[in-house]
Amino acid sequence: MVLDNKQKIIISPVDGCGLNYLEMISAGIEGVFGYQTAVNSFLDDFNFAFDEKREQYNSTLIINKIDALSDSQGFKIIALTEVDLFIPILTHVYGEAQLGGKACIVSLSRLSEDLGIDSRDQQLGERIVKEVYHELGHTFGLLHCKDRSCLMHYCRTIKDVDRKSHALCRYCKILLEDNKARSK
Amino acid sequence: MTRILIVDDELIMRESLGGWLERDGHEIEKAESGEKALDIIADRHFDILLVDIKMEGMSGLDLLKQIRETDPDTAVIMITAYGSISTSIEAMKNGASDYLLKPFDPNELGILIEKIIQNRAQELENLYLKDQYKEQIRFESMIGQSQPMQGIFELIGDIAPMESTVILTGETGTGKGLAAKAIHTNSPRCEGPFMGINCGAIPEHLMESELFGYQKGAFTDAKENKKGKLELANGGTLFLDEIGEISMRMQIDLLRVLEDKVFYRVGGTQPIDADFRVIAATNRDIAKSIKEGTFREDLYYRLNVITMKMPPLRERKEDIPLLVEQFLFRFSQETNKTVKKVDREAMDEMMLYEWPGNIRELENAIERAVVVSKGEKLLLQDLPIFDPQRVEHIKKYSLKDVEKDHIQSVLLENDWNVSKSAKVLEIDRSTLYHKIKSYDLSKEE
Question: Residue B15 above 50 pLDDT?
Fold first, then answer.
């Protein structure tokens, strides 16, 4: 059966960001969230969200714009970017999501820290995948989880990201199914 | 769930910080000024306040000073822009827990909040242990000749021989715990243990090991194997009091036990058979909790095979003389007094009173009256709630004194059961815990 994009999770790379990892990202999304994926770039650049003083991009402005632009397309949208993101009160964020909403974003900017010499690509890919699933989890209404191995665990450091798994813990799996059933 | 109030006059700051903390699983409220914050705090308790120092109108520092006077235990984290560190130091001198420089690293905030939550959990744990001890030594019995109670006795007789789970509903103090025990005593499981756990009184971080037990080495403090309530209830009845207060995670675990009929100790790999009957009790409107998404519908239907509603005392007032007689006899013996009768005026007043705290309130009123009674007859003025001097006394005291005294008397009336007292006072348990601590109240007073 061919699904239209309304029933899919749309991966939205900005300026070709993360193209090398698209296959890796989409492969797991269906397993974790039960939705197929499509690729569609809604925005070419994020200049409108640039803060000159901080030399960073306001992630809240970006996800709100993506949400507005996507209109009826896509069930959830995850944007990927190379730029460094912030929300006004914090120095930086790895990503941001509309809790129980539609749009989220992940920045690759700080995920490249402390990569191993031999397996840079693989390691970076895994970090991106984990953060993408984490932010998507928020759009499904999931909150941060205490379980350090769960995808929804909030990582303080890049080491914490490496330590957590690619899967939701059993509690978050059940809560995800509950939230999906409730939103139907 | 930690309750956090963000006080900042900049909308963008309130929104961005609020969103971040919400995704972290906290319950957030926002205030655009110090004045608004004080209004909000008057109605409900917060665990943490995040306060911007520089605001239009009341400054963050002035707000901090006011909060410290009324609620010294709420953690206050000051938020400040670079360049106003001296003000932050002044804030620390005035009792702020810490301060953060805007914009701050999310890790810094996360660590600060975690530290505050851990301290709070420790305080709750201490209070829980005290509460548990009191519950263990409490004497209990179930009496009543009224029609509603005769109906209850009949129902207990009908449902006791069955294996079905039961949900007991009814206001606080109506004797749901006694009814659960009566069902157990009259059931084929009566030779087995009756194992009760108050889901509302136990801190969330202790709940898992209390229910499931743990294997040695499962976590740092697990020095020995420990059996949980599920295991200790083997062959008997498990009574889950205040089931409506149980966390989402525990609901998932409990449902699994009820469905699979097996469970595991924390850190254990050996399945243990769940051989117990479950009786749950609540004074919450569970249907409302299901609608709000705080109670699982599947767990509710699994538990709710039979429902029994305990009548409030005001609907069975004809039982009051009998209950009074029983309490009078018990407390006279316990206190070595010779109070044998109740003055007619005192009894009339007790029959007129609505008893919002139900039997527990009556029991505590009699206990207190026996203690202060001078003769063989219990008089109207011996009953603390009917003391005509009370209003005059209150006039001499400050608002704080009156609040302290009122909280102390409600706690006493409810046998120091914090959950039940909080319900009578119409405040949250966490608020009550903080008030107990801030007023330095203890059972000995």
Answer: yes
